[in-house]
């Protein structure tokens, strides 16, 4: 089997549980987030992934998730940080829509933060490096909700706006692979069947 990329979102934080946008705020995992992170090895095993290279976002919640998942981080990459939400840091999509009905991060970006193009460019840089690293085996990218969605759609050549069509729950794994030598999303948002996380919660932050 050809080497593949595992996108791993960090486990739950207090703000991911409440739907608050979290980029630069450096939160640790909740107790539930710790439990979620510890389920990642079984997910990777079930998906037949054995990461030979592990890169992480610099945020504590991502690095802690990698540690709890038994993954040895080879490099911390600024380009894997979550979308900078700027003025929307710490608030929910519902609150934003009161003043900006129809707002969406993938099309509108964040005032005082990053534009969609800036985040797309970061994802492309990570994926270019990951393609090279795949020669040595599977690659794990431990990062965030929105960043993982951007990485997935850019892997298959879609515009960043299409990230709205994917979800990424806390501690979920998405697998980027190939089909007939063309990039594909092999598995998306894989979580344990026994998870107690409310899957209907607002998926807006990182």
UniProtKB/TrEMBL annotation:
List of residues binding substrate = 61, 82-85
Q: Give the Gene Ontology MF terms in alphabetical order.
A: protein histidine phosphatase activity
Q: What Gene3D superfamilies would the database entry show? A: Phosphoglycerate mutase-like
Q: Name one GO biological process term.
A: regulation of phosphorelay signal transduction system
Family matches, as SMART domains: PGAM (SM00855)
Catalytic positions are: 10, 82
Specify the protein name.
Answer: Probable phosphoglycerate mutase
């Amino acid at each position: 089997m050809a080497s593949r990329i595992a996108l791993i979102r960090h486990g739950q934080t207090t703000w991911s549980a409440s739907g608050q946008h979290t980029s630069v705020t450096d939160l640790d995992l909740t107790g539930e987030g710790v439990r979620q992170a510890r389920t990642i090895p079984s997910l990777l095993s079930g998906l037949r992934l054995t990461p030979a290279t592990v890169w992480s976002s610099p945020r504590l919640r991502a690095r802690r998730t990698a540690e709890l998942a038994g993954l040895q981080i080879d490099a911390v990459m600024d380009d894997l940080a979550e979308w900078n939400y700027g003025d929307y840091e710490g608030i929910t999509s519902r609150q934003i829509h009161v003043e900006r009905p129809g707002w969406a991060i993938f099309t509108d970006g964040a005032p005082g933060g990053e534009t969609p193009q800036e985040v797309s460019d970061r994802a492309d840089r990570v994926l270019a490096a990951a393609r090279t690293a795949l020669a040595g085996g599977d690659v794990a990218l431990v990062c965030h909700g929105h960043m993982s969605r951007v990485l997935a759609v850019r892997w298959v050549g879609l515009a960043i706006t299409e990230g709205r069509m994917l979800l990424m729950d806390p501690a979920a794994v998405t697998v980027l692979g190939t089909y007939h030598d063309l990039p594909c999303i092999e598995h998306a948002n894989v979580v344990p069947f026994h998870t107690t996380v409310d899957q209907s919660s607002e998926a807006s932050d990182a």
